[in-house]
Specification:
- The chain contains five helices and no strands.
- The longest helix is centred in the middle third of the chain and has 30 residues.
- Helix 1 packs antiparallel against helix 2.
- With 113 residues, it is mainly alpha-helical.
Length: 113
């Protein structure tokens, strides 16, 4: 039952943002950029009784992912502006995101050792 409530709340938020984006694309994008998923995940982890260390480590993981996500969105935007097909744009964006995360992990490993 509890899992269904989480799914319903999460789905309603996503549906709301999608509807806003249909009517007001810029505002929908701004709201979508809010850390809604991250905040929901932090709340769900806390409500489920996860230790603060787990929630803290999750939050650090989100921070590690921010630059890669910014790169992904920038690449998709540029591709779409240059008339590439949506799925091609998304594929290139995801590949850049993945490559960035691999490189980021290597740099962090070099710095910390």
């Amino acid at each position: 039952m509890y899992s269904m409530i989480k799914i319903l709340i999460s789905a309603l938020i996503i549906a709301g943002v999608t509807e806003m984006a249909k009517r007001f694309p810029t505002y929908g994008g701004i709201v979508a950029a809010l850390p809604i998923v991250s905040l929901l995940s932090i709340v769900w982890l806390s409500v489920q009784g996860e230790k603060k260390e787990v929630v803290s480590q999750f939050t650090l993981g989100v921070l590690y992912g921010l630059l890669g996500t910014i790169l992904l969105l920038a690449v998709v935007y540029i591709c779409l502006k240059n008339s590439l097909h949506l799925f091609v744009s998304l594929s290139i964006g995801v590949m850049c995101w993945g490559l960035f995360l691999v490189l980021q992990k290597m740099v962090i490993k070099l710095i910390t050792t």
